[in-house]
Structures are given as C-alpha cells and as structure tokens.
Design a protein that fits this description.
The structure is a homodimer of 349-residue chains.
Chain A lengths: L3 H8 L3 H9 L6 H14 L5 H8 L4 E6 L7 H17 L3 E6 L2 H11 L5 E4 L7 H8 L4 E4 L9 E5 L1 H14 L4 E5 L5 H4 L3 H14 L3 E5 L10 H11 L4 E4 L3 H13 L9 E5 L13 E3 L3 H16 L7 E5 L27
Parallel strand pairs in A: 1-2, 1-3, 3-4, 4-5, 5-11, 6-7, 6-8, 8-9, 9-10
Helix pairs in contact in A: 1-2, 1-3, 5-13, 8-10
The first copy, chain A, binds a DNA duplex (16 and 16 nucleotides) through helix 2 and helix 4.
Chain lengths: 349, 349
DNA sequence: TTGAAAGCGTTACCAG
DNA sequence: CTGGTAACGCTTTCAA
C-alpha cells in the first residue's frame, strides 16, 4: 500500500510527474519514466481507487440494475450480466450489482451519491418503473432492452422485428406457404418487452408476403416440459412446413427431440429457424439456422453509449437497434410442394 | 449534488456537526439535528461516495469473484450471487462483480487499489487458484465453499457431510437396507468441491449402519436429459427402496416424472430425500423431504465474517459449517420388508 | 454540545 | 519536460 509520494521520492521526481507518467496525460522523458516505473515496481505501488475517484471526479464504476423477475430465464439473464462485466472491463470499468429490491432504490442511491458514473438497465419490462426514474436522474442511464415508452431514453437491443421479418422472408422465398412460430412462455408476452414485438413483426411480414401463420407459446410456465411438444404437434398437424423458434434453450432441445421421435427430418420435412436465441446454437443436438441475440454485442454497445454520455452533452437519446445476422446451419430448405397427405388448410390460430 | 458545506451553511452549523448528525457518531442536540435534517431535505443532500471512501478509509464495497466455469449450474449460481448482494446491502455494502477472466486478476486489482474492503469467493474449485492468492492478499477474503486446501482461510458452507449422514440415518431408521444416491453430473465430481464430500459421507455412514449403497451420477453432462432416467432405472432394478437426491432442479423433475410414469408411489414404493438442494423444493410436482443448501444462509454468514475481518485483528480463519435442517414433506416411509419380487442382491456399484 | 482544521491520496491547473 | 499546490468532499481529532 505504498502511496504516490513515496514513489515520487524513490524516483526523485515530483508527485505530479508520477501521476502524469502513470496516466500518460502528459509527455514524460524516457529517463524519468524509467525511474518512475522502477520505483513503482519496487514499491508495488498501485493508485488508491478512492482518492482517484475523488480527485478525478469519476468512479470508473457502472451500476447494473437487474430486478430479475420470477419469470426471467436465468441462464439468458446471466449471459447478459457477464457480458456487461466483460464489456465494462475493456474500458477499465467495474460493475456494481443492484438486484431485486435494490434494483430501483439502488439506482437513486448510486446516482445521488455519485457512486456510479452511469447506470445500465437489464431485465427491462414494457412498463418498467425505472423508465421514469431514469428520466429524473442526472446520471446517464442506458437500457438494454426497449420499454414501451422510451421517449428520451438511450436504449440498445437487437432489432427483433427485423430478425423476425428476415426469418419469414427466408422461408417465403423458399416457397413455404404455412409457417408456425413457437414463442416463449405465456407470461413472457405480458411481462417482457420483446416477445410481442417479435410475434407482431412475424405475423405482419407474413401477411405482406401472403404466407399463412400459426403461433403457439412454449406453454404457461418455464417448468412445463410438455407445452412445447403439444405446441409443435398442433402446428405440424395444421400442415406447417416451417417453424420459427423464439424460445429458450430448453425449448429448442425439446422441439428437436420431439421432431426426432416423430421421424421428422430437417430440413427435408420441416424447415427450422431460431430467432433471438442468446445461447450457443451449435450446442444443440442439431444446430439450426438462427438470427441470434448476442449478449456481448448489446452490452458492448450499451457500454459504449454509457461512456459517450459521460462526456457531458454528448448524450444521444434514441433506440440503438442492432441489425440481425443470419447464421446458416442448413436447417431450411425449399418446400417441395403439396404432398398426398397434406391436410386441409385450417383457420389460422 | 449539494455538498456538505452547503448543508452546514443552510443549517447555520459547522461541517463537522452535519457529518456527526448524519453518521450519529457523536450526540447532537435535537434542535440542531432538526435544522440539519431540514437543510438536508431542502437541498436533497446525499454524501458523496468517493469523498466518504477516501476520508473514511472504507469503500463499503465487497468484491465478488465468480469465474463461472462452464459446468457450473447457472440458476444455482445466480441464487448465490443475489444472496450475497442482499446480505451485503443489509450492512450497507455493495457488490462489485469480478467474473470470468477477471475473477483472479480482479482480486489483485481491487485489493491493491483498495477498491473493495473485502472479497467474497464463489464457485470454489477443489484446487482453486484463488486460494493461494487469498493468502497473499491483505484484503480479507471469505470463501463460500470449501477448497481442498483451506489452511488459514475463512470458509463458509453447508455441512454437506452432516446432511448426507442425516439422510442416511433417517432411511436406516425406517428400515431401508438398500439405498441409492443420484448425484450430480460426472464433471461435478472432479471440478467442484462438495459433491465428492456428499458422496463419501453418504457411503461412509451407510457402511457404519450396515446399509447397502448404490450410486449414479446424473449423466455426463447437464444437457443430457436421459442420464437421470437411466440412473434411476438401474437403481430401481437393483432393488433400492430409497433414493437420496443430490442433483439440480431439472434432475429432480426428471426423476419425479420417471417415477410417475412407472407408477412408483412415494413414499409407499420408494422413499425420497433431497440433499443440498438450493432451489425451492415446493415448486416440484411432488415436494420431497430435503436437507437444503440455503444460499441466503451461507451468504449472510459470509458477509458477517467479512465484516468481522474488517475490524483488524478479528480474523478467524477456519471452516464455518452450517448445520443442516431437515424439511419434511412426507416423502419417506418405512420399508415394508421383502416382497415377493425382490431381486437378488447384486454387488454394490 | 459544537467548531476549526488537519488529513485522506490523487488529479490537474498554473508556472517555469 | 517538470514542479508546486490547490482542489476533490468528506471524516475525525483536537480544542473549546
């Protein structure tokens, strides 16, 4: 725990020179720099974080607010938490956790005490109470996810609508006339912000292209392992020739096993595309085409926006939607036309 | 962002009196206190965290190091992360995240810069490299989990051995002569610290009581949904009349569904006890008796130990094992003696 | 019960 | 290229 003045003495220079040599904010001659570096090494000097914060008027800490509602998919969420931490560290920032009951009150606290330079918001709800709070705070705040009312906020997210549209277009181009979507759990369509956006874009684009759509959720709850199977069965029975998946990793695995059991071959009998998946698609038993939601991408962008906001005045409110990328795994193919046992076209569900 | 001197002026008192009135470290007359509180309210004053840290020589921040290895069960892990955050806040502390690549290097960083007052260690491996590091740091460090070599360290954990023994004793008392354990995934027995301890205690206590044991892992990997079914089938086939579960939530659900399909009735045909489960046992389709690992309990204790360590000199190295509690859900019953179709006793596995 | 002032360990401005 | 020194905003000792 040596202090900067000890380093200065050992190197025979002034305190300010040591500071500048370390920060690089002022040129220092190679000779003195060397003496300082030696002194630092010998004394094992490391600048005191608290003093640095006070003098530098910057804590190098981002607060991460994450209420973690009961219906949030934990592994997905964790991937985002880790991604923010990694992204922050690249810019020499640390992440301070504001969870559960502290998610809201903690925001006020770190803002008014100046503990955090900026706030990153995770687990965004459509009617998130942190929206109003963020507007009232002087501390820059970046939402990772898009609340219904995002006027004046900085938000980052995958362009889910574009991803859904792209999936539909791919399938329509291949001749599919009846496609289905397996969505997330029912509650996700009430409590989360993007599932409804995906569904709406999917249906809208399909209508534009004259493709008939079907939709099923993964079931009422995350614990329900059967919901997916039933949903898939029903859509197959309805004559669907392609399936868009917007669900968590478990649901993907269940769908694949169900298809496997039924002897449905991909992509010959059925085309499959995953949209907005935030897990590694290649760990599935049968990797499938995807338009993934990449946590690192969203979080890197969020951190960059947070940093920009620090340079007072440079705040740019608005949606920062990330263009989706299509990853091919040969799980989609042309629809080979009507076969003998094609069922009657039922009403859309 | 009012400052303390503004509050002092507004209240017509000195800076130090404001500080003392707010911290309560010195008696302040009711009259002045009131004037100060009014000034604080009017100005919306909130002490600056950085200045407080520097002057108070305490950051009120705990670093949480969590490498999050690939084979770590994420929901369980997350429960611990949240529990540390909640426990810390109760003592006015915040949690700073050190994940993945930062798990080790970050420890050095926050220790040498004085960013954290203490370090909490999660996701402890048997041969954890953070053990040696913790010994070399001046910053108090508390392990939540027990590494093989814990000489001189402060460690908190459930007394897994006691829990395993208790489970065996319960079953032995009820007359069971052949019991099985469904353990975690195979890799958990190499890369984590407590699974081997549970298994060893289970087998040792059973041997003492003359009970024959069987053991199976949940399969090679977390993604393998079939491992549990096979494991259970094999143990049932071997004539096991009671099962001790030391596995994650998914595995519990799979076991229950398998037993249900086979028409095995609990506790009449089979007794079931869960050991070291860190999820809510009552969300299972059929709640079962358990000796749970309660994240909040471990983390509260860890935070308390960390705080004690701050009062220089009060450090008490050693294992702090939490006594297990037995939660009854009527999932164990007496063994009704040998029935007609009892299989031959095979060699223990 | 209260006040004055000396730190806490840096950063960054102003001089040279 | 380098040094002196005034902040940074609070805590806490010393004095009254």
């Amino acid at each position: 725990m040596a202090k900067i003045n000890e380093v200065a003495e050992a190197a025979g220079v002034s305190i300010s020179t040591v500071s500048y040599a370390l920060s690089g904010k002022r040129p220092v001659s190679p000779a003195t720099r060397k003496r300082i570096e030696d002194a630092v090494a010998k004394l094992g000097y490391s600048p005191n974080a608290s003093a640095r914060m006070l003098a530098g008027r910057r804590t190098n800490i981002f607060a991460l607010t994450e209420p973690l509602r009961t219906d949030t998919h934990v592994p997905t969420h964790m991937a985002f938490v880790l991604a923010t931490a990694v992204a922050a560290r690249r810019h020499d920032y640390d992440i301070l956790l504001l969870t559960e009951e502290q998610a809201v009150s903690g925001m006020k606290r770190v803002a008014s005490s100046g503990l955090a330079d900026a706030i990153l918001v995770l687990d965004v709800a459509p009617d998130d109470e942190r929206v109003a709070l963020a507007r009232s705070l002087a501390t820059p705040t970046v939402f990772i996810g898009v609340p219904d009312d995002h006027e004046g906020l900085v938000c980052v997210d995958l362009d889910f609508e574009a991803a859904a549209r792209l999936a539909v277009e791919k399938l329509a181009t291949l001749g599919h006339q009846r496609i289905g979507m397996l969505g997330m759990t029912e509650s996700a369509y009430e409590k989360s912000n993007f599932p409804p956006r995906v569904r709406a874009a999917y249906e809208h684009r399909a209508a534009e292209l004259g493709v008939q759509t079907f939709f099923r959720t993964s079931g009422p709850a995350q614990t329900d392992r059967n919901g997916c199977r039933v949903a898939v069965s029903e859509m197959l029975a309805a004559g669907v020739t392609a399936l868009v998946l917007h669900a968590n990793e478990d649901a993907h695995a269940i769908v694949l096993s169900e298809l496997d059991q039924r002897g449905v071959s991909i992509p010959y009998d059925l085309s499959l595309i995953s949209v907005g998946n935030s897990f590694d698609i290649d760990t599935l038993a049968r990797p499938i085409d995807s338009l993934p939601l990449i946590p690192a991408e969203s979080c890197n962008r969020a951190v960059e926006l947070a940093l920009e906001s620090l340079d007072e005045g440079h705040r740019q409110p608005g949606l920062h939607l990330i263009a989706p990328t299509y990853l091919s795994r040969d799980s989609i193919g042309p629809w080979v036309g009507s076969t003998s046992d094609e069922p009657e076209a039922p009403a859309a569900m």
